[in-house]
């Protein structure tokens, strides 16, 4: 494994910790500021919306500098936002700190995905991307439960101060290990936006919004669900988050490995399983053992979609991947914001703390339908391409060019790659 992937994983660890740790300390933050749980949920939605806005904006601005310099700037921005969150005297400033930190999130993972994919052979791109995201999953095994435990014992402000320190470590890791490769190959903003002419890029981002949004519908309000419905103590939530993180870690590795072999079948399986798990969670949330098992499955199945979705976007926008990659990271967080908001709506409507699971199942089920549509369109496009190629092959060839096999093999390679 290239050491540069380790640097990306370190940065992902810090970002993953701050993204998810708010769920574990949400009741404490709400009580400290005197707001309701659904209102405090805006700290999740606000962060997610900041990622959506920051991903394309900062990625476009970063086309004028090297990817390494841009990654360092993003980690600095992340540190500043978390420091503001730790010191914020009002809920509004706390939300502002979350948004500042979130601006770095999408661009970091978007640019990082391109860097990770460029460090390995073409047939290992999804695995390389999953190794970078491994830092995010490890954050859910170590960083988030640890931050939750510290927040419950010493106060949530200490948690965010530690997260800021993690950002500094990530910044040093990027500075030390990421190679200086110069400016991105495509520095034209118009060229980067051209990738969005492909309907498959839009379908992939819609799958991302809905599929991963299904996970966040359940996980945003996991603390009140587990304490009020399942009967766990607040201290036990830390270990439940560890189980969720272990599931994410395993799902990420499996998703990366199988996406390199059979991308769309992997995506179909993960989305179908996630929809079923979220439906089951409505019932299993009333039993401590079954709730813990289901929570782990949701983490695994939800994160198994990340490498294939990210690789699909990179494949479809191969001529200008940086902005499309970052935009897809923004799509993950748009799903987070949508799911957190919808979860708060059904809770505020009096439907109970398990109601967000139904919301999540509907979102992920819709993502599965879009994945089937994308695969069908992909097959139709390739079938049309083969018909055209076959027609060309039937025409008489000049005597000096006895066969066209090299041309056919050149055009068939991307078809095989995308079909996976």
List keywords for this structure.
Growth Hormone, Chain: A, disordered C terminus, mainly alpha, 0% strand, globular, 17 helices, 420 residues
Description:
There is one protein chain. α9 packs parallel to α12 and α11 packs parallel to α13. The protein is mainly alpha-helical and 420 residues long. The protein is globular. The protein has a single domain, classed as Up-down Bundle (Growth Hormone, Chain: A). The C terminus is likely disordered.
Low-confidence runs of at least 5 consecutive residues: 387-420
Helix fraction, binned, reads: over 70%
Structural class: mainly alpha
Q: In CATH terms, what is the architecture?
A: Up-down Bundle
Mean pLDDT: 79
Largest sheet: none
CATH fold-level assignment: Growth Hormone, Chain: A
Tell me how many strands there are: 0
In CATH's first tier, which class applies?
Mainly Alpha
Give me the number of helical elements.
Answer: 17
What pattern of helices and strands is seen along the backbone?
A: HHHHHHHHHHHHHHHHH
Oligomer: single chain
Between the first and last Cα atoms, what is the distance in angstroms?
A: 24 Å
CATH superfamily: MFS general substrate transporter like domains
Summed up, the domain count is 1
């Amino acid at each position: 494994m290239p050491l540069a992937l380790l640097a990306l994983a370190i940065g992902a660890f810090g970002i993953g910790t701050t993204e998810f740790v708010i769920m574990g300390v949400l009741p404490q933050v709400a009580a400290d500021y005197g707001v309701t749980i659904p209102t405090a949920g805006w700290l999740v939605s606000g962060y997610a919306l900041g990622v959506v806005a920051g991903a394309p904006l900062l990625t476009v601005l970063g086309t004028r500098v090297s990817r390494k310099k841009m990654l360092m700037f993003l980690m600095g921005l992340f540190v500043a936002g978390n420091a503001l969150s730790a010191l914020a005297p009002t809920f509004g400033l706390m939300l502002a700190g979350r948004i500042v930190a979130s601006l770095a999130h999408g661009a970091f993972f978007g640019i990082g995905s391109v860097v990770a994919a460029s460090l390995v052979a073409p047939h290992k791109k999804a695995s390389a991307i999953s190794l970078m995201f491994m830092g995010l999953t490890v954050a859910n095994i170590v960083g988030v439960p640890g931050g939750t435990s510290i927040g419950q014992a010493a106060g949530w402000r200490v948690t965010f101060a530690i997260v800021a320190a993690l950002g500094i470590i990530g910044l040093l890791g990027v500075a030390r290990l990421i190679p200086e490769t110069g400016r991105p190959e495509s520095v034209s903003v118009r060229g980067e936006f051209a990738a969005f002419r492909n309907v498959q890029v839009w379908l992939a981002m819609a799958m991302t919004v809905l599929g991963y949004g299904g996970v966040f519908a359940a996980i945003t309000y996991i603390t009140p669900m587990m304490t009020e419905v399942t009967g766990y103590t607040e201290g036990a939530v830390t270990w439940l988050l560890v189980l969720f993180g272990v599931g994410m870690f395993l799902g990420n590795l499996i998703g990366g490995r199988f996406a390199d072999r059979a991308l769309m079948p992997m995506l179909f399986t993960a989305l179908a399983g996630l929809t079923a798990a979220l439906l089951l969670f409505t019932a299993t949330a009333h039993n401590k053992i079954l709730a813990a098992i289901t929570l782990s499955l949701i983490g695994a199945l939800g994160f198994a979609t990340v490498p294939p979705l990210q690789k699909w976007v990179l494949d479809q926008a191969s001529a200008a991947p940086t902005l499309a990659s970052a935009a897809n990271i923004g799509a993950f967080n748009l799903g987070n914001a949508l799911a957190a908001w919808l979860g708060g709506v059904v809770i505020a409507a009096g439907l109970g703390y398990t109601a967000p699971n139904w919301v999540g199942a509907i979102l992920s089920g819709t993502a599965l339908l879009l994945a089937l549509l994308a695969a069908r369109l992909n097959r139709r496009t390739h079938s049309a391409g083969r018909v055209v190629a076959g027609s060309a092959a039937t025409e008489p060839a000049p005597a000096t060019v006895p066969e066209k096999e090299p041309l056919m093999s050149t055009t068939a390679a991307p078809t095989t790659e995308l079909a996976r």
